[in-house]
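PROTEIN DESIGN WORKSHEET
SECTION A - STRUCTURE
LENGTH: 204
TOKENS:
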């Protein structure tokens, strides 16, 4: 009786072979990738926007980095190509309220703390403590915990999943959209030099 060799599985053209793992590191001189397979470093070209050394990095998926800039806004950065894609601004998150100075410039953020029980109506949501003020660039250290991408952001159908405070909640946003899913109209607080208290919030 003749023996038949097992047929190899059919090719899957939609699947790409895994890339060699690389280490990404930065220095005052710039950014570099270190290939573990080749045992050598590759200097990267100057990247757009603020220097990588001045950003926080909150995750990496599909060869992209998730970074936060000086305003605590998130951007996706491909260090190999220099491509950059912005995520919805931090002020679109339900818990974050931007506070403007008398000149209309961003002064700080206020972070609200809600209980974890879903409200029947948005007006029924209960705050567990008074909002906390945070400097514009410091909010990133308090708010973000981790960001994961569903696929390569350059495909156009990528979803970003953000784990954040308070209480390790989950927010979801479509990459390239102006606001995350479930985003609410934002309150913007305007301050004046002579006022001892903040003016009433106005919805924008």
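SECTION B - SEQUENCE
RESIDUE ASSIGNMENT:
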């Amino acid at each position: 009786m003749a023996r038949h060799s097992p047929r190899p599985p059919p090719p899957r053209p939609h699947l790409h072979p895994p890339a060699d793992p690389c280490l990404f590191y930065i220095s005052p001189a710039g950014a570099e990738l270190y290939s573990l397979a080749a045992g050598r470093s590759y200097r990267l070209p100057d990247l757009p926007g603020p220097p990588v050394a001045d950003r926080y990095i909150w995750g990496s998926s599909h060869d992209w980095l998730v970074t936060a800039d000086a305003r605590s806004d998130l951007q996706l950065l491909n260090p190999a190509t220099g491509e950059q894609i912005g995520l919805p601004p931090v002020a679109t998150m339900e818990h974050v309220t931007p506070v403007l100075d008398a000149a209309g410039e961003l002064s700080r953020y206020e972070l609200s703390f809600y209980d974890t029980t879903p409200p029947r109506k948005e007006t029924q949501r209960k705050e567990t403590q008074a909002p906390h003020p945070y400097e514009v660039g410091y909010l990133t250290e308090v708010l973000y915990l981790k960001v994961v991408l569903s696929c390569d952001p350059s495909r156009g159908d990528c979803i970003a999943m953000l784990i954040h405070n308070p209480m390790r909640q989950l927010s979801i946003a479509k990459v390239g959209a102006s606001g995350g899913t479930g985003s609410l109209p934002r309150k913007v607080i305007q301050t004046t030099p002579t006022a001892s208290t903040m003016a009433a919030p106005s919805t924008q």
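SECTION C - NOTES
The chain has one helix and 15 strands.
Residues 139-143 form the longest helix (5 residues).
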